C-alpha cells in the first residue's frame, strides 16, 4: 500500500495529499484534461427550457476531489473506500462514477493509479455518456450561466499554469526561456517579455505604431497588429497612453472627415455620422463619444441646428481656402472628404453669388450715410432722400446734405461734385451712373 502511494506521489505530486497521522487516508484532487480545445455544451437540466445552450471551447475541466480511506485488507480483499465531490458533476452522475471506480478494482491489484488516469484523461466522461459521438461534451446543469464562468476561469488558469511551467525559444533573442518570463500573443507566437518590451517601447518612442504587433516575420508580412490588451501587458501605462494617442493621430490623418472635439479638455477625434451621405444640414452634427458635446463639424461651434447656416466669416474662409487649390487636386479632395462635396459646392456657389452681389452694390448703388441702406438711382439728379431714415445725401460721393438747402453742395467749387447735379451723357442721351 505504501509503495503504491509513493508511486502516485512521484508521478502526480500536485494531485495527492496524505494525512501525516494516518497514511491510509489520502485525498486526490484530479483535474480533467481534455487535450486540445474541446467543444463543451452546457444545457439546462429542465427539458422544457427554451434557453439557448452555452457553448465553450475548453482544454480542461475543474478537478474532482476523491477522499480515499485504505483499509488494512486493501488490495488483497477489499477495495478502497472512496467518496467523490465535484463542483460541476450532478449527484446522480457522481453516484454512477463511484460505481465505475469500485468496479475497476480486482482483488490483489492496486487501483489508485488507474483511477487517476481514468479521471485525468476524461475517459469517465464517455462512460457517463457525457461525450457525444460527434466529440462534443454535453453537460446538464440547473444553472448553465453560473457553471460557464467557473469552467472558463479554471481553464484560463490551467492554461496559464501549463504555459508558465514549459520552456520556449524566443525568436528574437534565440534563447530558451521559461514560460513565466514569456508571453504568447493572439497569433500563438511566443516571445520573452524582455524582447517584446524592447521592440514595442522603442516603436512607441519613435512613433512607429501603425503596425505595432507580433515581431514574427510571417505576422509582420501580413501586417498583424496587437490590441491594447496585449500591449498593456508588456509596456508601461505612460507608453500605452502615448500609443493610444499616436493611433488616434494616425487615424485622424487617414480620415480627413474626423473632427477633433472643440472642448479644450477633450480634443477626442469625432467621426462623421453614418448618414453623412445626404446633403442635409444634419450631416454637420457631431457628438463627441467621450464628453458628449454636440457641435457643428463645419464651424466647430455649439450645434446650431440643421437649418441655420454657419457664420458667414467662417464659410468665406473655408471657400477661399478651397478655391485657392487647383481643381482636381489632392487638397481639394481632402477638404471634400472632411466637409462634404455637396456642402462645399453649395458654399462656393453661394460665395460667388455673394461676391457678384457685392460688386453690383458697389458699382450700382450708394449706401445711405444715415442708415447704410443701399439705394440705386435709375434716373434724375444726384440729390437723394433715403426712404428709410429721410436722410438727404449726394448720390455721387455720399455726403450728407442740408435738408433746407440740399443743392448748395453741387454749387461749391471745393467739392468733386461741383456742377454735377446730373450725370448726363450727350452721345446716347442716356442717364449713366458715374
UniProtKB/TrEMBL annotation:
Residue ranges constituting the RWD domain according to the UniProt record: 3-128
Enzymatic class: transferase
InterPro entries named in the record: E3_UB_ligase_RBR, IBR_dom, Rcat_RBR_RNF14, RWD_dom, TRIAD_supradom, UBQ-conjugating_enzyme/RWD, Znf_C3HC4_RING-type, Znf_RING
Residue span(s) of domain RING-type: 166-421, 170-215
Cellular component GO terms, alphabetical: cytoplasm; organelle membrane
GO BP: protein ubiquitination
Pathway note: Protein modification; protein ubiquitination
Pfam family, one: IBR
Keyword annotations from UniProtKB, A to Z: Membrane, Metal-binding, Repeat, Transferase, Transmembrane, Transmembrane helix, Ubl conjugation pathway, Zinc, Zinc-finger
Catalysed reaction equations from the record: [E2 ubiquitin-conjugating enzyme]-S-ubiquitinyl-L-cysteine + [acceptor protein]-L-lysine = [E2 ubiquitin-conjugating enzyme]-L-cysteine + [acceptor protein]-N(6)-ubiquitinyl-L-lysine
Main subcellular location of this protein, as a coarse class: membrane
Membrane topology classification: Single-pass membrane protein
Signal peptide bounds: none
Cell location: Membrane
Assigned EC number: 2.3.2.31
GO MF annotation terms: ubiquitin protein ligase activity; zinc ion binding
Top-level taxon: Eukaryota
Record family assignment: Belongs to the RBR family. RNF14 subfamily.
Protein name: RBR-type E3 ubiquitin transferase
Top-level taxonomy: Eukaryota, Fungi, Dikarya, Basidiomycota, Agaricomycotina
